[in-house]
Automatic annotation (TrEMBL):
Pfam families: MazG-like. Its EC number is 3.6.1.12. Keywords: Cytoplasm, Hydrolase, Magnesium, Metal-binding. One of its GO terms (biological process) is DNA protection. It comes from the Eukaryota. It comes from Carpinus fangiana. Its cofactor is Mg(2+). This is dCTP pyrophosphatase 1. Its main location: cytoplasm. Hydrolyzes deoxynucleoside triphosphates (dNTPs) to the corresponding nucleoside monophosphates. Has a strong preference for dCTP and its analogs including 5-iodo-dCTP and 5-methyl-dCTP for which it may even have a higher efficiency. May protect DNA or RNA against the incorporation of these genotoxic nucleotide analogs through their catabolism. Gene3D superfamilies: MazG-like. It is found in: Cytoplasm, Cytosol.
């Protein structure tokens, strides 16, 4: 399989193709049912959670984490993404399209309020009491 360093831009479609190839080469498609992929995804979310467990709140950018810890974090985030991509694929969902549509729906559901717009203009980053 092609190494990550060879890919300038990583797309969901590329990841989907890589994972299809990965499963096919090992004859693992028989195990990749929607339910199994969902359970695998949830398991990886658990592993991702373990990394943050008991650490308390951590600052953005993780300035105090070692390189090794960050590499581990990248691996667990990737496992979640790769199972999500496979789950979407096996369910016949175009994840990229679905996510873009959801972004639009989110914007409609949570319109930018006048108060928020005004806060941005004034340089304040208040969430207008939402968070
Ligand atoms: N049947 C499988 C098994 C693995 N993978 C892929 C997707 C994930 O990216 C990764 C998961 O592999 P592991 O189950 O070995 O999980 P970890 O890499 O997290 O290892 P560990 O649980 O030992 O930390 O491999 C897959 O697509 N299908």
């Amino acid at each position: 399989m092609t190494g990550a360093q060879e890919c300038e831009s990583v797309t969901l479609d590329l990841l989907k193709k890589k994972m299809t190839e990965f499963a096919k080469e090992r004859d693992w498609q028989q195990f990749h049912s929607p339910r199994n992929l969902l359970l695998a995804l949830v398991g990886e979310v658990g592993e991702l959670s373990e990394i943050f467990q008991w650490k308390g709140e951590v600052p953005k950018g993780l300035p105090d984490w070692t390189e090794e810890e960050k590499v581990h974090l990248g691996e667990e985030l990737s496992d979640v993404l790769l199972y999500l991509v496979q789950l979407s694929d096996i369910c016949g969902i175009d994840l990229g399209k679905a996510a873009l549509r959801k972004v639009q729906l989110n914007a409609l559901k949570y319109p930018v309020s006048n108060e928020r717009s005004q806060a941005s203009i004034n340089g304040s980053h208040s969430q207008a009491g939402r968070f």
